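Entry 14. Structure prediction run on the chain below.
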Amino acid sequence: MKESENENEVPEKSEPIRYPSQRADWRKRLYIVIFGSDTPAGKLFDIILLWLIVLSILCVTLESIPSIYQEYRAWFRYAEWCFTVLFLLEYILRLISVPRPSVYAKSFLGLIDLFSIIPSFVSLYYPGAQSLLVIRAIRLLRVFRILKLSHFLNEGKILMAALHASRHKIMVFLGGVLSLILIIGALMHLVEGPENGFTSIPVSIYWAVVTLTTVGYGDITP
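Output returned:
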């Protein structure tokens, strides 16, 4: 089978693997374990990686709560060191196992793997960089590798084609909703007036949107 024409594309799991050396059997086995999910070892690797991702995101979420962070600051720091080392080891193993490491490093998933590690090192060496906690959550995107992203992309193309075919009906529906909101907003401004909080038509339209789309915030009532 020919190699992928796109240089930035990571080889598919089902494609044969070609290495410069014929003695790199251990790299092929490592590739099957890391990138494959058809073997018991590959499934176990995916499950362990999935739990690491979930636990890492859970730690990032809990760390954002000041009261919990102050009480368990040391535990969060130890946990982050563990997650960072494990994800770094995983990234290195992926680079070792692929036939062309530079191609994988520049691919979309390779960049996600790299960018999910860098902010962790920065936040560990500079504890004040708490804003980077949000960036570390990008490692959650690794889950889509296990869920076979290509399958969901194909379904997404079908969905986009269906939306494009129904674009005229969708526009008519949105136009009807917009007209209804404008009419209700104007009527409420006329009936209730500024003394009840409907100081202008835009404010009345805001009330109409909130009332029609949600249960209402209660900041403006007729």
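The chain has two domains: 25-147, 166-213.
Filed with the rest of this week's runs.
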